[in-house]
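Side project, low priority. Logging it here so it doesn't get lost.
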Amino acid sequence: MWKSLLLLALVVPGISSAQSIAPGRWDVVSTATDLDIPGAPGFLLRMMKGRSKAEHKCVSAEQAKAGVAALLAPDPKAHCHVDSVQIDKGRFTQVLSCPQKQGAPLKVSRSGTYDLAGFAGQAQMSGVTPKGAMRIRLEQRAAHLAGACRG
């Protein structure tokens, strides 16, 4: 579930003039640091804590002109809506609403720092499961892997 939520539209109010990032392959790695999911077995939560998942992004030369916004853009498959975003002076904040199959959307709040090499920050996801309120905290880091994208 949280894998698909590692997710900003490229043109959103609140973004200051962007410094281009390098085009090519990037990884956005998210590591689960805290999980509170009512009804989930304890052993499963312990297995998930500390695990990392990489979202591979291919940033075109045109997208790279948007700067870190290209890396913060939500995965289109997740169908998340950007509620707010602020990118300025090396810091970012972002709030997303991501639909669930049942119930109210998940809220994802992200914040951190960025430079031309990528970003580092935290994401907190909150929502409601059939068994109660849930919360997941992630540490996130984006890094440039190489030049041209494959395929």
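Brief comment: The longest strand covers residues 132-146.
Revisit when time allows.
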